[in-house]
Amino acid sequence: EAVSCLNRALAALRDIWEEIGIPEEQRLERTDVVKKHIKSLLDMMVAEEESLKERLLKSIALCRKELDTLCRELQLDPFEAEEESTILQMEKDLRTRVEVMLKQKRDRKQELKALQEQDRDLCDILCTSPFGIDSNAVPSLEELDRYRRHLASLTAEKERRREEFVGIKRQVILCMEELDHTPDTSFERDVVCEDEEAFCLSTDNIAALQNLLQQLEARRSLNEAVCVELRSRIIALWERLQVPAEERESFAVH
């Protein structure tokens, strides 16, 4: 079809040149110019398409290289493109795969960052060491799953210690009120006065809190024993002094 179009155009040009009366020698020159124009146009079109092909092949090579890196980072099996597909289809498939895997990489890194922020908060409260994971590498799905389960365990431990802290704190405050004791150490003030959410729930703090409660309960038990002894002596003295019941009852309120 292209040859037919070219022949028709050349025939039309010859007719025009004959009608004009252009000599044979000039007609040959003009035909040569037409040939050069056509050849130049075709050469330019071929060069453009060759350039497109080279760009596609270069893109395929770059995508393959990037895919190899992403597969290693994401700890996935190497991606195998369909070798029988065309260059255009292969380039599209590889480029699409790169975009998908880059999104997976971003998602994993973002989740790792969020988990590490949660980990830091829990470590500050529980006074524990952070989860061991390389912040610079792309975490595997298994590592992210282990990290999530680790944080779930820490969260449960935090709630358990929080409940234990609140229960002991309530008993400590009650003992202090009964003993008319004012918090006189920084630890006691932290326990009684500080916001419960700000209290460090370390094992040492929980143990110190339990020890404080035991000390207060021991003082209360001692005071109660002294009170029992004093009441016994008062009753004995009332009996010896024959103090009237009315006077005993008026004192009983104390």
From TrEMBL:
Residues of the signal peptide: none
InterPro entries reported in the protein's UniProt record: MAP65_Ase1_PRC1
Superkingdom as given in the UniProt entry: Eukaryota
Recorded GO CC terms: cytoplasm; mitotic spindle midzone
GO biological process: mitotic spindle midzone assembly
Molecular function via GO: microtubule binding
Matching Pfam families: MAP65_ASE1 (PF03999)
Name of the molecule in the record: PRC1 regulator
Species assigned in the record: Chauna torquata
